[in-house]
Amino acid sequence: MSDTKQLTLPITGMTCANCVATVERNLKKMDGVQSAVVNLSSERATVDFDTSKLELTDVIARVNRAGYGVATGEADLILKRLSDDNDARRLEKALAKLEGVLEAQVTFTTEKARVKYVPTIITQAELRRAVASAGFEAVELGGEAEDAEAKAREDEINEQYRLLVIGLIFTVPLFLFAMGRDFGLLPAAFYEMATMEGMTVAPAPWTNWLMLALALPVQFYVGWQYYVGAFKALRNKSANMDVLIVMGTSAAFFYSLPITFGLLAGHVYYETAAVIITLIRLGKFLEARAKGRTSEAIKKLMGLRAKTARIIRDGVETEIPADDVRVGDIVLVKPGETIPVDGVVIDGRSAIDESMLTGESLPVEKKPGDVVIGATLNKLGMLKFEATKVGKETALAQIVKLVEDAQGSKAPIQKLADQVSAVFVPIVIVIAALTFAGWYFFGATLPINSDIDNFTRALIYMVAVLVIACPCAMGLATPTAIMVGTGKGAEVGILFRNSEALERAGKVNIVVLDKTGTITKGQPAVTDIVISDQSSVSSTDHRALTADDLLRLAASVEKGSEHPLGESIWAEATTRGLVLVEPTGFKAEAGHGVQAEVEGRSVMVGNVRMFQARGIQLGNLESEVAHLQSEAKTAMLVAIDNQAAGIIAVADTIKDSSKDAIAELHKMGLQVVMITGDNQKTADAIAKQVGVDQVLAEVLPEGKSSEIKKLQSSVLGLDTLAKNARYSTINNNLPITNIVAMVGDGVNDAPALAQADVGLAIGTGTDVAMAAAPVTLMSGDLRGVARAIYLSRRTLATIKQNLFWAFFYNVILIPAAALGYLNPMLAAGAMAFSSVFVVTNSLRLRKVKI
Questions:
Q1: Cβ neighbours for 847, distance < 8 A, ≥ 6 positions apart
Q2: What pLDDT, on a 0 to 100 scale, did the predictor assign at position 141?
Q3: Amino acid 194: pLDDT
Q4: 718 pLDDT above the threshold of 70
Q5: Which of 30, 378, 705, 713 shows its CA 20 to 30 Å from the CA of 633?
Q6: In this structure, how many other beta carbons lie within 10 angstroms of the beta carbon of residue 2?
Q7: What is the pLDDT, as a whole number, of residue 21?
Q8: CB of 344 within 8 A of CB of 369?
Q9: Nearest-CA neighbor of 141 among 78, 92, 232?
């Protein structure tokens, strides 16, 4: 029998009745939709459909395919009471099952849930209730998210510490008393009978009651959280670390009760249960403190923000909280103060220290018209600027969100750990049961005078198996390293959009560099001025033409031009302080040049094709043109009254860091390719200066992505293989698939950045390129590419070390416990510190020099 459901969806992108009809028509075409009504004024669609044939995601996909969108909300929930990665996955599944939830991602290391939902179907309050029903707690934010989160985390660590102290108060005396009693170190009053030689026979029964009194608060107060967690996990048909702890400690504790009550003879194991709980509580406390340090980079970035801002409103200067600054406010910043929000300078000059965001050590000069970034430091002069971006729109807020998104994403290398963790606890319980059965039924015969029986021995070894197993280490292995790695990157101006980019960057073997704006500055500048032998100032003034004369005339013509090369001529003349005149009769010929009347003379600035079309002879300038082109310079010819007067050479100068950056990439065993739309001769000249391995010249913007595709599928040469020992072939017939990184800064690079295995956008470029790239380099320094790849390699190595430890630990110690080589208390200690080891190993990344 079919089940009909009605949904109301908020539609975006509708502007007219035709849009309404298009959305309705597309929805009604779907098999299973019974009715669809779309309202333009409310911009909502109400859909009745058969749930046996369709799901919410199918309806949304159809709306998207029709060319419209469905408005969605994104909730960031701060979580408490997550015990391990299994809990995170269980909650993720519970949230994903909720009607109206499109995506749910829960991260154990950050203890956050990010939920994408349809606001007309489910609310954030309902999401929090769902978290609570799954056995966890979502912190409700009142005020700043980071403040509430920091307080919640601090409270949680304090609670862990309080329970640890209580555990130690009871466990240390209990353990010392138990050891002293068992080894006959206590006075005779503690024993039931003793021989003349002082050898103990049996402890006094009341000592068991004393041990029970000390163990009880540890078991059911300090360890109560584990019971609650285990119950909720089992109620949700899952099993986590809490289940293992509860099973192990309860076995030891409840086995001891009938002995205490005199129903059974034997040894009590209260100290075992108490020591296990207290040691695990100690491990969790240390882990929580260490985990807090993995997000220090984010806290450091947030701490850069100014708390207050000095603004001018209605002609009155006033100081307000930085959060209250609005777009359009005029903000004043004195020397030594932090810039509160992003904006554009309208008055004043200064040098700004942007190192906290870009990693650039040198201050950046700012003048009217320049952009300033919030959280950077004003070093010298007073600045007055207009606020353009505030709150979540500022560069700092975007960086923080980008880093948080990357930290919350899952790297491909984590999939194996996730698959193992999903079945880990049930397998451990089976191994523990087999351990008990094996030792009970098939164990070696105990000596006649042994103080334990077969059942007790089997129980002890089973408890050891239960408490030695550690799913936490596997769950923490990848995300902790990702958190520290992405945070470290943010500190030096390298932003990874997701953890997959962080992982893939370390596997790159070819780096493709766009020329303009990446290798070069992207700002053409005049480099040479060459004067013809026959040139004179004017028809009446026969003095030889000087470089300034030629530049002044050419710049006067170019005043009316918008071409970048023309602008560079005009800029050079302005820099030299030359007085320009207004041209008359300005004409521009696309692909050739410009012409105008200046001071009564016809002045033409253009390329060789323009001069050839007019039959103007170059004379001695022809050889100069060829020479300048061989040096990667663009030769702009200048003619006065149809006579070749000289050449102004313009070139996009190479960045100071480019040559060193490419040398660093070579040291790392990487092949470097330059891609450009320039002619082959110009491209080869630049390539020779910076030392790239291969040049792809005369590539149109739309052809860049296809060139990347060719590199990805090409076979590396033997010389490259020799340079890069990490890549080899099993035999010469097998091709090698290259992992290609593309580095660019412009809109034209966006398709190539998306096509590459790893796209790196230079931060001085456009927002479009940065949006298309998985990695953003905040600084325009090309050396950031090598730093990003090196950081990725180090992070990947740390993840592998963590995973090796997590798997090695469990693969070696679980069998050791099953074979009877581990005391349960030692097993608990090892288990508690295994996850601490993984987190601490990840924290080592913070000290890596990049």
A1: none
A2: 52
A3: 47
A4: no
A5: 705
A6: 10
A7: 66
A8: yes
A9: 78
Range in 530-539, 795-804, 806-815 the model is least confident about: 530-539
Q: Is the pLDDT of residue 309 over 50?
A: yes
Distance CA 119, CA 126 (A): 11
pTM value surpassing 0.85: no
Q: What is the DSSP string of 724-736?
A: -TT---SSTTS--
**Strands lying side by side in the sheet with 510-514:** 494-496, 775-777, 758-762, 740-744, 510-514, 671-675, 694-696
Residues 6+ apart with CB under 8 A from 666: 672, 691, 723
Q: For residue 662, what are the contacts with CB-CB under 8 A and spacing of at least 6?
A: 513, 672, 690, 691, 692, 782
Mean pLDDT of 778-782: 84
Whether the Cβ atoms of residue 43 and residue 8 lie closer than 8 Å to each other: no
700: left (phi over 0), alpha (psi -120 to 50) or beta: beta
> Which residues 6+ apart lie within 8 Å of 263 measured at CB?
none
Per-residue CA distances from 6 to 9, 46, 57, 101, 298 (Å): 10, 7, 14, 16, 42
pLDDT value of residue 771: 61
Amino acid 733: pLDDT: 38
Cβ neighbours for 589, distance < 8 A, ≥ 6 positions apart: 595, 606, 610
Phi, psi for 345 (deg, rounded to 5)? -65, 130
String of DSSP letters for 11-48: EES--SHHHHHHHHHHHHTSTTEEEEEEETTTTEEEEE
- Residues 6 or more apart whose CB falls under 8 angstroms from that of 171 comprise 214, 218, 271, 274, 275, 277, 278
Q: Is 562 exposed, middle or buried (0-12, 13-18, 19+ CB in 10 A)?
A: exposed
Q: What is the DSSP letter of 508?
A: -
For residue 294, give the nearest of 446, 108, 140 by alpha carbon.
108
The average pLDDT across 279-304 equals 77
pLDDT for res 722:
36
Known active-site residue 514: yes
- pLDDT value, residue 483: 84
- The encoded tokens of residue 412 equal 């491909």
The DSSP annotation for 831-842 comes to HHHHHHHHHHHH
Alpha-carbon distance 358 to 373, whole Å?
11
pLDDT at 769: 47
Sign of CA dihedral 257, 262, 267, 271: positive
Q: How many other C-beta atoms can be found within 10 angstroms of the C-beta atom of residue 695? A: 20
Asked whether 288 and 352 are in contact (CB, 8 A), the reply is no
Query: Which residue is listed with tokens 């990848």?
Result: 478
Six token digits for residue 794: 């180090």
Per-residue tokens: 43: 């911009």
Does 332 or 238 have the greater pLDDT score? 332
Question: What are the C-alpha distances in Å from 406 to residues 274, 397, 410, 424?
Answer: 40, 14, 8, 27
Provide the pairing of β-strand 510-514 with 377-378: unpaired
Catalytic residue among 514, 693, 749, 757: 514
Confidence check: pLDDT of 210 > 90: yes
Our CA angle for 98, 103, 109, nearest 5°, is 105
